[in-house]
Amino acid sequence: MAERADVLRFDRSRGTAAVTTEPRDEQRRLLLAVIVGLAALLIIGGGLAYADVWPFGGGDTAGQPSGQAASARYVDVPPMVVTLRSADGRQHFLKLHFVIVASDAAQVGRITSSMPLILDTLQSFLRELRPEDLSGSAAVFRVKEEILVRLRDALGHDGVNEVLIQDLIEQ
What we know:
The protein is an alpha+beta fold. The protein has helices at 23-50, 67-71, 106-113, 115-127, 139-155; strands at 6-11, 16-21, 74-76, 80-84, 92-102, 160-170.
């Protein structure tokens, strides 16, 4: 049902008339072809990236540690249970269990031997928390950052990369 936009044009230089297609229809066809081509490339590229077979880099794992080397950098801190300060007089408890990610495997022994210092440093911090400090969505982030700051003060800035909280339970 689509109508062709053929136009009869007169060429003055030759003195003849010829049927030509509107230039706008040619531009629309070209634009449509470009859009379809880009969409196809986008779909194919997304499929390759999702399947992790992207041929143009980005899948390089040379900078990432292997599974065994990465697991050797984790130091498990024993779970701690502390009483929280409370204005209402009720007892509130906090159970915290986390893992320290050492900057390299050589730091693991140093962190493990400093565990009594780590526990003492964190006990005083955790006992000063109030139940209000643990409410809200940013509470875990604040506690995690404060623990990281205190660990870096106790062990040096080059010893600890990250703190991974396993359990944070307030009762």
